């Protein structure tokens, strides 16, 4: 039998035990966490819209009309006209032919990947891709080949490798499909995937290219459409865009955009779509409203960009290692060691700032970090206060014992 107590004790000894914390306020610039009001630098609500009155109004009026829950999966009886409207709007927003909504980004990745590839196929996945992508690949039973982070040359070599010959007498199906898959914005590193080069390789080796737009939608591109707009790439049949409504879009739910045929196929084959109760109509209503806001109002995105640049620049100038993060709302501060990371996070909390420490298995051993996420609604004062506290704590080498831990200039 598994001894859960021992398993937890082992995690604790390594500084890897996780505990839930509880928020008693709306998801905003400031939150009340474990009874304390703190500056929130730990939310993917990048545009600050999760608590927007316009979204709230849209959701409440949908609840009044459609009720709280949808009562069944989409193909049974859980599809409302709002689902249809949202899918049309998402497809238009992402400049693709069609879209399909899931109940979360996690479930979208599982359902998309496991239905478009299977045994005998091969998936090339960036080493830093999100866990939901890895889980989708494992579920699909396709071969998983992880390429070094953003390393186009290494990926080219891997794609060029001849397939291993089938063993004599083996009934193995010859490889059929090749899929390259990447986060557009890496969730823990805040850097951007080299999408144009990946697309070039996808064309060269006749692969599908799937991009996970979780942290790019609403953030990247002139109109917030994501990484393709950021790089000036036109959507085409080779590209599958997955995304989530739960981050800059301030709601909940996942989605995929692509060709009409792809969406028809997923409706028929994607198990996490077929066998799960559908997203409540209220969340479709708030998503419809948020896309309307994002399309009309570029000011929020501009403020987000300015805030993130200001904070990143300030941290860098103090000597903190923010890895390759750039142009996104995610700023990692490398702390390397788990106990030290959590101690830094605890001290920040004491000072009134909530920044979560990130440890294995979310990141590799030795690469623990504080993951800061910036919001458009943070004020200059909030960010200056944050920089002052990082300076105070990060250079307090005696009491924090940061030697060999946080990369900070003396
Ligand atoms: C890159 C990436 N993909 C997918 C997901 C899953 O999305 P959701 O939170 O909507 O389930 C996340 C969530 O953190 C993510 O960071």
Can you lay out the helices and strands and say which pair or pack?
Layout lengths: L3 H10 L16 E4 L2 E5 L12 H14 L7 H5 L2 H13 L4 E5 L2 H12 L5 E5 L4 H10 L2 E5 L4 H9 L17 E6 L11 H10 L3 E5 L14 H5 L7 E6 L9 E5 L1 H10 L1 H4 L6 H16 L2 H19 L12 E7 L1 H13 L2 E2 L1 E3 L9 E6 L6 H15 L2 H4 L10
Parallel strand pairs: 2-11, 4-5, 4-6, 6-7, 7-8
Antiparallel strand pairs: 1-2, 3-9, 8-9, 10-13, 12-13
Bound molecules: pyridoxal-5'-phosphate.
The site of pyridoxal-5'-phosphate has 14 residues, from helix 5.
Principal-axes shape call = globular
CATH architecture label of the largest domain: 3-Layer(aba) Sandwich
Distance between the termini: 50 Å
Number of strands: 13
Q: Which ligands, by name, code or SMILES, are bound?
A: pyridoxal-5'-phosphate
Specify the biggest β-sheet.
7 strands, mixed
Question: Number of helical segments?
Answer: 16
Average per-residue pLDDT, rounded, comes to 93
Query: How many domains comprise the coordinates?
Result: 2
Structural class: alpha/beta
What oligomerization state is this entry in?
single chain
Strand content: 15-25%
CATH topology of the largest domain, what is it called?
Answer: Aspartate Aminotransferase, domain 2
- pLDDT under 50 segments (min length 5)? 401-410
Q: Major sheet: order of its strands?
A: 3-9-8-7-6-4-5
Query: Helical residue percent?
Result: 40-55%
- The gyration radius over C-alpha positions equals 22 Å
């Amino acid at each position: 039998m598994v001894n859960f107590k021992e398993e937890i004790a082992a995690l604790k000894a390594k500084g890897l035990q996780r505990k839930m914390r509880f928020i008693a306020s709306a998801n905003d610039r400031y939150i009340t966490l474990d009874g304390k009001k703190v500056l929130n630098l730990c939310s993917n609500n990048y545009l600050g819209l999760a608590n927007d009155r316009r979204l709230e109004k849209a959701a409440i009026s949908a609840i009044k009309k459609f009720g709280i829950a949808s009562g069944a999966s989409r193909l049974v009886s859980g599809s409302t006209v709002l689902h249809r409207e949202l899918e049309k709007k998402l497809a238009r927003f992402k400049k693709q032919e069609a879209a399909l909504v899931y109940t979360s980004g996690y479930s979208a990745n599982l359902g998309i990947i496991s239905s478009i590839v299977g045994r005998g196929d091969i998936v090339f996945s960036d080493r830093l891709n999100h866990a939901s992508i890895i889980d989708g690949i494992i579920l699909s039973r396709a071969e998983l080949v992880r390429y070094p982070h953003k390393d186009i040359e290494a990926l080219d070599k891997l794609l060029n490798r001849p397939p291993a010959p089938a063993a004599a007498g083996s009934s193995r199906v010859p490889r059929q499909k090749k899929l390259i898959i990447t986060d557009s914005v890496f969730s823990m590193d805040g850097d951007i995937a080299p999408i144009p080069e990946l697309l070039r390789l996808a064309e060269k080796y006749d692969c599908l290219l799937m991009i996970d737009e979780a942290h790019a939608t609403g953030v990247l591109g002139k109109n917030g459409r994501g990484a393709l707009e950021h790089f000036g790439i036109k959507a085409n049949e080779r590209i599958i865009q997955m995304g989530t409504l739960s981050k800059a879009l301030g709601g909940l739910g996942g989605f995929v955009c692509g060709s009409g045929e792809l969406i028809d196929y997923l409706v028929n084959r994607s198990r996490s779509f077929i066998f799960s109760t559908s997203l409540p109509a209220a969340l479709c209503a708030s998503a419809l409203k948020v896309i309307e806001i994002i399309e009309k109002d570029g000011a929020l995105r501009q403020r987000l960009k300015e805030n993130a640049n200001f904070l990143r620049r300030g941290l860098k100038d103090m000597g903190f290692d923010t890895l390759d993060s750039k142009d996104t709302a995610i700023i990692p501060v490398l702390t390397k060691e788990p106990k030290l990371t959590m101690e830094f996070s605890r001290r920040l909390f004491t000072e009134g700032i909530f920044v979560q420490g990130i440890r294995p298995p979310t990141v590799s051993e030795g690469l623990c970090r504080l993951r800061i996420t910036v919001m458009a609604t943070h004020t200059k004062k909030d960010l200056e206060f944050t920089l002052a506290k990082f300076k105070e704590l990060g250079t307090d080498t005696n009491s924090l014992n940061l030697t060999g831990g946080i990369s900070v200039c003396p």
